[in-house]
Amino acid sequence: MDCYELLGCNENSTHEELKRAYHERLLQFHPDKNNTNVQKFFDIKAAWQVLGNPQTRKRYDAACDQERLEQEANLVYARISSSDLEKSDFENTFFYRCRCGERYLVEPKTLEAKNTRLHVMCDGCTLVIIVET
Ligand SMILES: [Zn+2]
């Protein structure tokens, strides 16, 4: 359950914004008005129980951050530097091989910006590599 999404807000929303959104949605999905989606009404109430209290909100935010980091870590195949890339003889590109057999292709001009991290998606699967320039 994404508490922020239920209230149509995000992590940067202020307490006042969350409160306003909560009251609007509570009216919108009140069982008297919208009895086809009663579950949503209770979900919205549950989301407010988490986000309406600064302490539980903080805990929720931390848990979400952790989850995002873990998801990202699962998708990252490798963290490499630009010198680990191989030069393709046929195309004017650099590449790195993925375990799926396809390649991560990197245009030379994207390597010109120094001290940045490029996220490159594999051509064949959902993995990414992070290239430090
Ligand atoms: Zn791949």
Automatic annotation (TrEMBL):
<dbReference type="InterPro" id="IPR036671">
    <property type="entry name" value="DPH_MB_sf"/>
</dbReference>
<dbReference type="GO" id="GO:0001671">
    <property type="term" value="F:ATPase activator activity"/>
</dbReference>
<keyword id="KW-0408">Iron</keyword>
<comment type="similarity">
    <text>Belongs to the DPH4 family.</text>
</comment>
<dbReference type="InterPro" id="IPR007872">
    <property type="entry name" value="DPH_MB_dom"/>
</dbReference>
<feature type="domain" description="DPH-type MB">
    <location>
        <begin position="76"/>
        <end position="133"/>
    </location>
</feature>
<dbReference type="InterPro" id="IPR036869">
    <property type="entry name" value="J_dom_sf"/>
</dbReference>
<feature type="domain" description="J">
    <location>
        <begin position="2"/>
        <end position="64"/>
    </location>
</feature>
<protein>
    <submittedName>
        <fullName>DnaJ homolog subfamily C member 24-like</fullName>
    </submittedName>
</protein>
<dbReference type="Pfam" id="PF00226">
    <property type="entry name" value="DnaJ"/>
</dbReference>
<dbReference type="InterPro" id="IPR018253">
    <property type="entry name" value="DnaJ_domain_CS"/>
</dbReference>
<dbReference type="GO" id="GO:0008198">
    <property type="term" value="F:ferrous iron binding"/>
</dbReference>
<dbReference type="Pfam" id="PF05207">
    <property type="entry name" value="Zn_ribbon_CSL"/>
</dbReference>
<keyword id="KW-0479">Metal-binding</keyword>
<dbReference type="InterPro" id="IPR001623">
    <property type="entry name" value="DnaJ_domain"/>
</dbReference>
<keyword id="KW-0862">Zinc</keyword>
